[in-house]
Amino acid sequence: MAQVSHTALTQVPGDHHDLIVLANRLPVDHATDENGRPCWRRSPGGLVTALHPIMKRRSGAWIGWHGRPGPAPAPFVQDGIHLHPIALTGDEVDGYYEGQSNGTIWPLYHDAVEQPQFHRVWQDRYRAVNRRFAEAAARVAAPGALVWVHDYHLQLVPGMLRELRPDLRIGFFLHIPFPPVELFCQLPMREEIMRGLLGADLVGFQHPQATRNFRTLAADLLGAKVTDRGIWYDGRDVAADTFPISIDVAEQQRLALDPAVRARAAEIRRELGDPRTVVLAVDRLDYTKGIECRLRAYEELLAERRLDPAETVLVQVAVPTRQQIDQYQALRERVERAVSRINGEYAGIGRLSVHYVHQSFDRAELAALYLAADVMAVTPLRDGMNLVAKEYVATRTDGTGALVLSEFAGAAAELEEAWQVNPHDIDGLKDGIADAAEADVAEQRRRMDPMRAHLHAHDVNRWATGFMGRLDRVSRRWPSIAAA
Question: Is 383 a catalytic residue?
């Protein structure tokens, strides 16, 4: 990863940009270089990987929070991208980020798996921070610039930016699910958020059902005219469509073929005691990910001897997230109790039934885990996409491996050959895991080959260029659908 010392940051000149991305976070993280000095390091992840070459080529600007409460650093350039940090106070982190974004919108948009909370002070801070992002974009956007706003933290920005700069071409992409009418209408800010989203020229979603939900709400809540060609609202055309995000397939395959990664995969299996079956799950420690249901299904499979406790290991990677929020602390306690119970009942001397790891891993270690796993269990209760499922398929370059995938993950619409399960149905979940564990190589390849072919044809670069190309077309579209 490229990194730059704070003391060597290039200051942004006073020009404007034809391409601007707005996201909650900047594409760089605070880090320390080899001399112990503070620096910035490019963030991992599909969004940064996909947009980096496009933004570098067009000398684009990225507006986002720098990750810590307090004053923001001065704008700077890294890897050819102009970075404009946004400042958040401690109260704004509490209200805008942990509160309205992750205490209200996140659970509501994920089928209210946890009860969303509604607080007016959170809503006020959400408005204030969204306004700050919109004003920052308005200042640095060239006339007619293309602006791409990302995710649930910034749903008011398109409308606010439209008011400030009606000349801009604005796109919005939601990385998480968009809920049905009966859930969305619980939001006290429901009309305000819909007006914010309809400030865009193009609104993109992960799954066709989310697109349908949005179109229905535009008509029901705001009286917009919805046709097959788009949405007519407030004197403007708005397109809404589905753009399933993907991964950097070539990079994932490069990791899979790296001799060091392959050696590490073999070492992992030895460290696990060379079991017959390794089941892997990699999730953020979030209540939407179905970890408790998965542990319960695995425990029952061991109890029923459908999986041999002496020959089966579950590796559960639980990446820390939002640890200050009460629901996440309670979830961690429940998960760790369940892991202890399973190991107490089924582990042997020098052998665990569940290896539970509450930490992050780099991409090479994750690739090694994917190669070491016979079965990959991706069973969220609700997910916008879930890129872990795609990473596993892309890493298995020989076509082996078995993917058990929740039908409520966005990836299920594309990876149809996986063992698809309803994670709320424990018996069905057990059947999916057991069948995947028993599948022979021929069955594995019969399922994996078409999924791998799909990912080759629909990687993250195609997603990014597809969305931006569509935005460029729809924002120039004439005549208006209102005249149709």
Answer: yes
* 376 in Cβ contact with 370 (< 8 Å): yes
Local confidence band at 133 (pLDDT 50, 70, 90 cut-offs): very high
From the candidates 30, 119, 175, 454, give the one annotated as an active-site residue: 175
- C-alpha 192/C-alpha 479 separation (Å) is 28
Question: Is 460 within 8 Å of 248 (Cβ atoms)?
Answer: yes
pTM above 0.90, yes or no: yes
Write the DSSP symbol of residue 123. Answer: H
The CA dihedral of 127, 128, 132, 133, to the nearest 10 degrees, is -30
Which of 98, 33, 38 is closest to 65 using CA atoms? Answer: 98
Least confident of 59-68, 193-202, 211-220, 296-305: 59-68
Q: Which of 368, 405, 372 is nearest to 390 (CA)?
A: 405
**CA gap 239, 232 in Å, rounded:** 9
Q: Please tell me the total number of residues recorded for the chain in this structure.
A: 484
Annotated catalytic residue 175: yes
Strand pairing partners for 402? 375
Cα separation, 248 vs 269, whole angstroms = 26
8 A C-beta contact, residue 85 and residue 65: yes
For residue 63, pLDDT over 50 is answered with yes
Interhelix angle 387-395/363-372, rounded to 10 degrees, is 70
Over residues 145-167, the pLDDT tens digits come to 999 999 999 999 999 999 999 99
Classify strands 225-227 and 402-406 as parallel, antiparallel or unpaired: unpaired
Give tens-digit pLDDT for 74-127: 999 988 889 999 999 999 999 999 999 999 999 999 999 999 999 999 999 999
Q: Is the pLDDT reported for residue 315 higher than 50?
A: yes
- Helix, strand or coil for residue 83? strand
Q: Which of 84, 383, 458, 459 is catalytic?
A: 383
Number of other CB atoms surrounding residue 342 within 10 Å: 22
